[in-house]
Amino acid sequence: ELDGGDAGRLGRRLARKCLLAVAGLVSVYDNTWTTDRAGAAARWAEIEPPLENDLGMLLAWSTGDVVPDRPSVAAALDGVVNEIVASFEVSIGLWGAAGDA
């Protein structure tokens, strides 16, 4: 939860999970297997250039090089996270999505 939580810690966890999802997207797109978050962020930025800056931001959060504040985490949730989730849903699918048995 963003309210009352440690935004820096939440941002790092969010970034790591999102970049692992991006690694899954790259794996499907390139017909390979990777869990390399940095490599996946770079490759997905080539595939989806409008996300390049946001992916770089997530990478910096994931490594702890940048500690996000609450407004930055909220903006990521409304922006790049939604983009990654939408791409993941189309390419791979979501567990527990409406209609799943």
Describe the structure.
- The protein is mostly helical and 101 residues long.
- 67% of the residues lie in helices and 0% in strands.
- The chain has 5 helices and no strands.
- Helix 1 crosses helix 2, helix 1 (7-30) packs across helix 3 (52-63) and helix 1 (7-30) runs parallel beside helix 5 (80-91).
- The relative contact order is 0.18.
- The model has no long low-confidence stretch (mean pLDDT 92).
Give structural attributes:
single chain; 101 residues; mainly alpha; 0% strand
Q: What topology emerges from the helices and strands here?
A:
Blueprint: H1 7-30, H2 37-47, H3 52-63, H4 70-78, H5 80-91
Helix pairs in contact: 1-2, 1-3, 1-5, 2-3
Shape field = globular
How many DSSP H or I helices? 5
Strand content: under 5%
Compressed to H and E, one letter per element, the order equals HHHHH
Low-confidence stretches: none
- The total strand number stands at 0
Compact overview of the structure:
With 101 residues, this protein is mainly α. The protein has five helices and no strands.
